[in-house]
């Protein structure tokens, strides 16, 4: 995209190559309905709400979603089946997958659902154990590898595409990982998921482990096997780790709407989508991103924090004098793109929003003039003076109601 | 029964050029200036600001932005109040204030420092990106003159100057180098790089810091400190700060609960937790949790108890052998 505005922005981010080491760009797996609903604060939504979640996910370019763990019980299994049917019936371009522990009790329900559906359902198969656990408990790694092989083979033999989830990958020794992956891939797994179960990875670590696994798969003759990354936000690095994993070779990134999930959650899907688009790794249509997160917020019972990147109330909102002044001057040039760029990393219009200028204690006269102009009082100098004075004395951003009141009548003690 | 060393493999360390073992890093808390630019926070009363200052001092944070004297009125009064509190309570934290390159902002800071009778650092900021210049209609030579004039003035009048280019992460390398060199020649002791709009990635942050560090060193400024100040518009603020430190930034900015302009800054709690794990610093995590609760109440921002619980868990990763059976979960 050649754009005169590109000359105005020096892009330090492109000092390093941003190309991904695999063709076809990066895809996303939405874990809101499984990992997201495990969060301590989550409620239990109805199937209709869950299906709507999948519709919104598909609308913003997500192509696969974990629809639950049928092995958790009858109602979980029934929801999973209803969701798989719903996706098919609506023709949604999103492939459902199910989590399952390496047991017949978990895997069989998924196989049965797939059979009744008449189409395969991907299984995200995990051992509920890790190489570290083996060392701690005194188990042999061979036993772990054998279990992986046995249950992957079982699922594959019954027609399920399998993603083998390697828990605690980010604290596992390369040799141990290689051993487990060889078993899983040898048994027919078509994807491997690197899981940062303890949430302790840094971007450099995520990059290195993803690059190692990509390389190890190639050496195993399994270059066509896909690579997932599933991380957590314990260190505040979830988004950066996911991007770094993609750089290292992970072609599918797991995320949840608003980052809801275990402990402090997962990378927020909306942030991954925006970053992927800014990096040129994907071209999702983000026009319904606000609806996606608003629905998730209602479904899970978690409010969208005002400071949530891209989708929070404050994402494109300022009361700061210097910022408002620059945004207004940009507006005077008539260049809408410049308005969306001068104090913003993410174009508000991607998600159907606009830059907002408000009035508070850090405001200057530009903020107030902007508000007056948009409320039919552009020439009211007395109101300008009253509002600015009241704003400076306030301890919060003034609401429209407060501003109206101050604009139309003098407030007490403002004879300065 | 003792837990054997599970020999968790550390993928995070690497001897490549990207990694510096144990960078010398300190922290600057911007809650009482940038933090208050959040459209959603309540501005704390003076007594609340003082309580926050005491707590962040207990955490071990080296410097705090005490406000923007050029804003006049209550803001300027609070700057002086907090400087006096540091002095009278014998706090270790050092105060920094903010200001544009103009008399209205610099002179009040000089006067406060003189009245309080102790050193004050000022972060003088100036927009350096072509996009800001276009929007504002600025002239390049004018920017250089402003830099030399006001950095020089503030330095001569006894302030310690941190010179900050706003929007550094969208500025041209040659522009940034020229402005910083002018600032250092005029007396600046530190330079600040600002990811004002939050557009940087860790790779970009690393490249920019590396460039500025090298350009300062080449111009004889090896003793000039380098600050990193970033925003969270892409969800990368914490990662960018850590990356900046690995590239040579020795002071990282953050705010309590990540509050700040638009979607805010790097959460200082995440910066400190990561610094603890990485062996860069030993903040007092109990004091940090108390600080976050008090700051949350003062700012009218809710504190995520999960975050506080996680900080405790992260601390266990370094302070004692990890309890792996407890940490390994059945589901990822």
Describe this protein's structure.
- The complex is a heterodimer of chains A (416) and B (332).
- Chain A has 416 residues and is of the alpha/beta class.
- Helices cover 44% and strands 10% of the residues of chain A.
- Chain A contains 15 helices and ten strands.
- In chain A, the strands form two sheets. Chain A has an eight-stranded parallel barrel, surrounded by eight helices. Chain A has a two-stranded parallel sheet with strand order 9-10.
- In chain A, α1 links the parallel β1 (27-30) and β2.
- Chain A is elongated.
- Chain A starts with 26 loop residues before the first strand and ends in an 8-residue tail after the last helix.
- Chain B has a single domain, classed as TIM Barrel, CATH 3.20.20.
- Helices cover 47% and strands 14% of the residues of chain B.
- Chain B contains twelve helices and eight strands.
- In chain B, β1, α1 (46-59) and β2 (63-67) form a beta-alpha-beta unit.
- In chain B, α1 (46-59) packs across α2, α1 (46-59) runs antiparallel to α10 and α9 (268-278) packs parallel to α11.
- The radius of gyration of chain B is 20 Å and the shape is globular.
- The model of chain B is unreliable at 1-7 and 318-332 (pLDDT under 50).
- At the A-B interface, α4, α7, α8, α9 and β9 of A face α2, α4, α7, α8 and α9 of B.
């Amino acid at each position: 995209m050649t754009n005169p505005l590109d000359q105005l922005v020096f892009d330090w981010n492109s000092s390093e190559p941003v190309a991904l080491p695999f063709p076809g760009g990066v895809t996303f797996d939405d874990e809101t309905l499984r990992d997201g609903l495990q969060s301590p604060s989550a409620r239990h939504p109805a199937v209709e709400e869950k299906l709507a979640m999948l519709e919104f996910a598909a609308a913003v370019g997500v192509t696969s979603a974990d629809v639950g763990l049928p092995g958790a019980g009858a109602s979980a299994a029934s929801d999973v089946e209803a969701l798989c049917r719903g996706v098919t019936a609506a023709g949604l371009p999103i492939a459902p997958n199910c989590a399952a522990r390496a047991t017949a009790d978990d895997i069989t329900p998924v196989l049965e659902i797939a059979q009744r559906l008449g189409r395969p359902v991907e299984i995200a198969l995990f051992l509920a154990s890790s190489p570290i656990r083996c060392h701690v408990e005194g188990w042999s790694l061979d036993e772990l590898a054998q279990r992986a092989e046995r249950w992957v083979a079982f699922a594959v033999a019954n027609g399920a595409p399998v993603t083998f989830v390697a828990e605690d990958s980010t604290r596992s020794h390369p040799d141990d990982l290689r051993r487990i992956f060889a078993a899983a891939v040898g048994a027919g797994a078509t994807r491997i998921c690197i899981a940062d179960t303890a949430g302790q990875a840094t971007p450099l670590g995520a990059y290195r482990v993803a690059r190692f696994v990509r390389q190890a798969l190639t050496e195993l003759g399994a270059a066509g096997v896909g690579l997932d990354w599933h991380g957590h936000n314990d260190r505040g690095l979830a988004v950066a780790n996911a991007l770094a994993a993609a750089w290292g070779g992970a072609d599918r990134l797991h995320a949840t709407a608003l980052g809801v999930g275990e402990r402090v959650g997962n990378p927020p899907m909306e942030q991954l989508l925006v970053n992927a688009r800014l990096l040129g790794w994907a071209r999702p249509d983000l026009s319904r991103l606000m609806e996606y997160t608003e629905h998730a917020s209602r479904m899970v019972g978690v409010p969208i924090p005002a400071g949530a990147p891209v989708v929070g109330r404050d994402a494109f909102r300022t009361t700061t004098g210097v910022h408002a002044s620059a945004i207004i001057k940009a507006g005077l040039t008539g260049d809408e793109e410049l308005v969306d760029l001068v104090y913003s990393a993410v174009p508000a219009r991607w998600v159907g929003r606009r830059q907002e200028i408000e009035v508070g204690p850090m405001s200057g006269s530009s903020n107030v003039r902007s508000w007056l102009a948009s409320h039919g009082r552009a020439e009211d100098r007395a109101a300008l003076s009253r509002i600015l004075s009241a704003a400076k004395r306030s301890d919060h951003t003034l609401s429209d109601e407060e501003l109206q009141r101050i604009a139309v009548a003098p407030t007490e003690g403002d004879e300065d | 029964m003792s837990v054997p060393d599970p020999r968790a493999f550390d993928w995070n360390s690497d001897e490549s050029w990207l990694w510096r073992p144990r960078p010398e890093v300190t922290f600057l808390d911007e809650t009482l200036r940038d933090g208050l630019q959040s459209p959603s926070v309540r501005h704390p009363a003076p007594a609340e600001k003082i309580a926050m200052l005491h707590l962040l001092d207990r955490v071990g944070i080296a410097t705090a932005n005490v406000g923007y004297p050029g804003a006049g009125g209550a803001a300027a009064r609070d700057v002086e109040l907090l400087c006096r509190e540091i002095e009278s309570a014998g706090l270790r934290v050092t105060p920094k204030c903010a200001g544009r390159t103009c008399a209205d902002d610099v002179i009040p800071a000089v006067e406060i420092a003189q009245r309080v009778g102790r050193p004050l650092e000022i972060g003088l900021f100036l927009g350096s990106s072509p996009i800001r210049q276009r929007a504002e209609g600025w002239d390049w030579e004018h920017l250089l003159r402003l830099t030399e004039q006001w950095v020089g003035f503030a330095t001569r009048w006894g302030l310690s100057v941190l010179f900050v280019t706003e929007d550094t992460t969208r500025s041209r390398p040659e522009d940034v180098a020229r402005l910083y060199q002018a600032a250092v020649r005029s007396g600046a002791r530190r330079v600040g790089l600002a990811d004002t709009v939050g557009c940087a990635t860790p790779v970009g942050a690393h490249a920019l810091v590396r460039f500025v560090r090298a350009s300062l060193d080449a111009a004889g400024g090896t003793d000039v400190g380098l600050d990193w100040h970033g925003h969270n518009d892409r969800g990368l603020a914490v990662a960018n700060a850590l990356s900046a430190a690995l590239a040579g930034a020795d002071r990282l900015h953050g705010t309590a609960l990540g509050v700040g302009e638009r979607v805010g800054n790097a959460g200082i709690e995440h910066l400190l937790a990561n610094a603890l794990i990485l062996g860069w610093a030993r903040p007092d995590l109990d004091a940090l949790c108390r600080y976050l609760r008090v700051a949350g109440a003062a700012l009218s921002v809710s504190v995520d108890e999960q975050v506080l619980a996680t900080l405790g868990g992260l601390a266990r990763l370094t302070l004692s052998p990890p309890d792996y059976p407890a940490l390994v979960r059945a589901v990822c």
